[in-house]
Fold this protein.
Amino acid sequence: MAYSFPEEVLEYVFSFINSDKDRNAVSLVCKSWYEIERWCRRRIFIGNCYAVTPGIMVRRFPEIRSVEIKGKPHFADFNLVPEGWGGYVYPWVVAMSRAYPWLEEIRLKRMVVSDECLELISKSFKNFKVLVMSSCEGFSTDGLASIVANCRNLKELDLRESEVEDLSGHWLSHFPDTCTSLVSLNIACLASEVSFSALERLVSRCPNLKSLQLNRAVPLEKLPNLLRGAPQLVELGTGAYSAELRPELLSNLFDAFTVCKELKGLSGFWDVVPAYLPAIYPVCNGLTSLNLSYATIQSPDISKLISQCQNLERLWVLDYIEDSGLDILATCCKNLEELRVFPSDPYGVEQNVALTEQGLVSVSEGCPKLQSVLYFCRRMSNAALVTIARNRPNLIRFRLCIIEARATDYLTLEPLDAGFGAIVENCRELRRLSLSGLLTDRVFEYIGKHAKKLEMLSIAFAGDGDLGLHHVLSGCESLRKLEIRDSPFGDKALLANAAKLETMRSLWMSSCSVSYGACKLLGQRLPRLNVEVIDERGTPESRPESCPIEKLYIYRTVAGPRFDTPGFIWTMDEEGNTPLGIA
Amino acid sequence: MTSPLQHDYIILPETHTMERSSADILSSVPAAENNNNVLNLKETELRLGLPGSVSPERKPVSEVARGYCPLKNFLSGAKRGFRDATDSSEQWAFSGSGGSEVPDFVKGPVLYSPRDENCGLDDKNNSNKSCFKPGGEKKTSATNGNAANTPALKAQVVGWPPIKSYRKNTLAPNICKKADVAKDLNTGYIYVKVSMDGAPYLRKVDLKTCCNYAELSSALESMFSCFTIGQCSSKGLPEREGLSASRLMDLVHGSEYVLTYEDKDGDWMLVGDVPWKMFTDSCKRLRIMKGSEAIGLAPRTMEKCQSQH
């Protein structure tokens, strides 16, 4: 086109566009924009590692510097995805080692990473800076040793909640003495002790260290020295927060915290001895994020702490906080945006703490900026949910888990349809919703009707039949991820809304009523979807077609069926033939 | 309470008891069918389906129809509930509104028993039966004030409540202080601290790498040999399990020390009394104690020690 800007100018303009959505939009304008954009894209996000192949990625985007990939479905967090499902990052690393010598950042979530993989990463990318592995598994501390030894410019090593084979703490000593580039280190998930002296030296020679999250094995006595070596810390995860009561340790700790003027986030707090909590008072006022979800301290201690954190924006806590503590939170923390309350005794039958729906109601009343909620409790009422919905129409994420499955409204003994209905009706910006309690198809009618911005929906033990699923699939325009377990949804709704599935990232259904025959039909009708039947009873071909399958995972893909399926997964074939997969 | 029957395509009428054709009944009906108030313990028994096991027969359960009706299979036109009627009633029935009916109805999650050999077998009456058998546990609960007589059997359902295993593993061993026991349930190591009286620092040993007491003692021997005053015993390692403390003592430190451990209850015990597996499950830390302090632990052991030296 005669009127278009020179490439260089366009490229320069595009360099200001960083969101994936915008970048994707830019690439669709015309062929030349597509071409220019693909050469200057530096960062890519792959929400489902099987939606595209590494080959396709490197072919289209030759100059990537930062990759983020997600693997297993979310329900893998709760052991619903069998071992061996997949999510191997190795093929990606191999492809990138050839195509992206200048790769700097790899961020993974729910993927299987091996030590070989980590070694390959450490040797292939000369300028490698950031490795974040969230809920990953398959590697050991040997792999970590390769990374820290070979990546000379390492800035971030973040192992959040990964399952690491912890052979020893020796890996940390592999950081070369010349390493001064560290900005973020998170080893909270590791069990074994690292060398404290190596850790201290590492911390004090990295002037840009902003985030340090220790593991439980780092004793409290070591903390003051570490803090003094890094007074610029913005985020700290303590180790075990307990020691015998010694006044000099308490005052030492207190003084050390006083020096940390930049501290905004605190976490860790395993094995808390309450007497040591006052040590963090110096930083409370500056805290925006506080994670006490491993701290088994009681409500009075929690409340005392919270009342000093007037600027708190995010609080994760155990239900030991109780309604009384949440009242105090509602009174003191007017900037609160996110609240997560975890159960201290999730498998107990009886209620062990005085935490009810009231606590959440108070917070919804008192905290005008509250937008993100994860709340475990043992009872709920429609009235409370309606109140919450009316108080907080600005909610974006609402995840409620009433511990007893199919629990009714404890006041009226009715289903909680009306309550959740009020949530979706009032909270127009709701993007994520997790349901619990007794729910009929009616709640799905409300969701389909009102939840137009909903992107992720989690359903468990809910609904009456296909109509419920149909409401959701036909009504929720923005739906990207749907995960369902133990609900009576079957073939009819799926087949009637088959086309919808291509507009979503993925659908997970386990212990529902989807028949094998329907899966085959779906696989036939929708070639751009992978319809994966997961069944540990052996091949579904050995049972009647009307037989329901155990688990189903459907996702859109341009990669075709995957080749790394384990023996208990069958991908439905386009031709409607005997499906691919090991019999 | 009106039932929200919005399901136009649901054929079955709203009745209290499911009416089923004989073809739909999966399992034979025990005699106690009509006795709705009998607490059927067998029914509420905790069971897990192992590979190849057959799910036990279930009593058909009465159901308060709230729309939990089997769906016709529109796909193939076959006359069949979306789930076999008994299965559906077992899984989706819930405690009715104020019903005084007791343990009969099933409420709550049912553990999945995916192995069902009956599936697809040639039962002529059940040509259309569902193979999806929710075997395993059933839960009858006393929630919402109903059914006060039901025992609250808490069957644990996989993945419910939805808590990450990372969190479960972190919070669960709250009894463990610090890193006394680094136990990874997934990869299978059990590191426990080993202290020896008089030694300047502690060690850690992985109990999983030792299969028996003999290996443990040899591991400890190699760890602490630098601290022994006398020579280590040159005796061969005994073959048998259940090594007595006196033998361990011989092997590790000559005659002066005794190997003890702290168990889950916080008590200090002599190593070697219980089977190896039981020991590894309950051992929190090890301590190589001076013989003089071991008095009171097991007097006859001390006699043995003295008699051997």
